[in-house]
Q: What sequence folds into this?
């Protein structure tokens, strides 16, 4: 593994407040319905138990069925540990009433020797989907990637999650070089977008 990739990821992971430090919060904050969205930033290890249960409940609401039918299956304990990992960082979106309406969790990682921002989860409450909020959070991740010298933003999507595939394609994400081939028999795709 190139020393530089490891060093860059270590440095980015140690930042307490990277989005604030580099002023890379998205400039787009108004939904298509005219609501102004605000964002909270935190390490997974600093989420309260109550906030974590909200995160996990929204994950289950949006994804449980998809995981149950996937080749990975659904293992609640391992998913909980994954979301609360020490390297997980959260962006939580709030509506004008201050209610939590969605989140993304990401990590800085070395993937196939390349420093990347991995968008681990992106979950929006069903009643707030398709209003531009997911796009706002991707925009922040892309700006953050540029400031921390990560080479791309990556994500993994089930092949049968058409709305999510459509969403990422719309935002310029394409099949990553590490994406399983069409004849692999695997049920997910790895998408990425290079940091400008
Ligand atoms: C996928 C998800 C994160 C997207 O966030 P969102 O806030 O709903 O998305 P946005 O409103 O920012 O953007 C939606 C865009 O994707 C486009 N889109 C949605 N479904 C699409 C499809 N099937 N084909 C093409 N484009 C599609 C919309 O046209 C829209 O584009 P526009 O803003 O130019 O009109 C959100 O809908 C969600 O939480 N879904 C359920 C959980 C999930 O699947 N998460 C992703 C796991 S990988």
A:
């Amino acid at each position: 593994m190139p020393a530089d990739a490891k060093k860059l990821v270590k440095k980015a992971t140690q930042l307490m407040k990277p989005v604030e430090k580099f002023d890379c919060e998205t400039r787009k904050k108004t939904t298509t319905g005219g609501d102004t969205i605000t964002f909270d930033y935190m390490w997974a290890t600093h989420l309260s138990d109550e906030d974590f249960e909200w995160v996990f409940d929204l994950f289950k609401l949006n994804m449980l069925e998809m995981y149950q039918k996937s080749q990975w299956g659904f293992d609640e304990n391992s998913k909980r540990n994954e979301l609360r990992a020490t390297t997980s960082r959260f962006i939580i979106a709030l509506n004008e009433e201050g209610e939590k309406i969605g989140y993304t969790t990401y990590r800085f990682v070395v993937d196939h020797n390349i420093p990347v921002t991995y968008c681990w989860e992106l979950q929006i409450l069903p009643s707030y989907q398709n209003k531009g909020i997911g796009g706002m959070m991707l925009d922040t991740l892309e700006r953050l990637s540029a400031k921390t010298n990560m080479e791309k933003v990556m994500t993994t999507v089930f092949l049968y999650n058409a709305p999510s595939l459509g969403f990422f394609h719309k935002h310029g994400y394409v099949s990553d070089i590490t994406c399983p081939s069409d004849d692999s028999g695997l049920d997910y795709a790895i998408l990425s977008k290079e940091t400008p």
Notes: The pocket of coenzyme A is lined by residues 62, 122-124, 129-135, 157, 161-164, 166-167, 170 (CB under 6 Å). The chain has one domain: 3-194. The first strand starts at residue 38 and ends at 43.
